[in-house]
Write a structure and sequence with these properties.
Elements lengths: L11 H18 L3 H18 L5 H4 L5 H30 L2 H22 L4
Helix pairs in contact: 1-2, 2-4, 4-5
Amino acid sequence: MFVLPATADDTPLAEQMDIMNDAYKTIRRAKTPEGGAPLAREAQNAMIKAITETPELVKEMPDGPEKEKAIAEYRKQMGMLIATLAEMELAFLSGDMEQVDAIVDKMRDSKKTGHKAFMKDE
């Protein structure tokens, strides 16, 4: 559920997404719980900050019900991502690397959905 909504790399949201993406890339290669749990926690912390932001695509929408729905959907997806990352951290801490791999796969699909909904086509 990576929701990379900004095209400019200097927005607060883009900065948090960069932290998330860096952690995610490293998590995919993590082979030990000791290495992965802190990365999952780091990604969670970035997403907790990111949930308070608004994607650029949504900011550009005219005020009204559709914009409010888009903001709510963004926050819903981000909340789900935070929960998924907490699930991943618990899997790492339990040493369940199969579960970690399943969560990584789940996140890959969610990333596509979030990007499609909240990123401008480049």
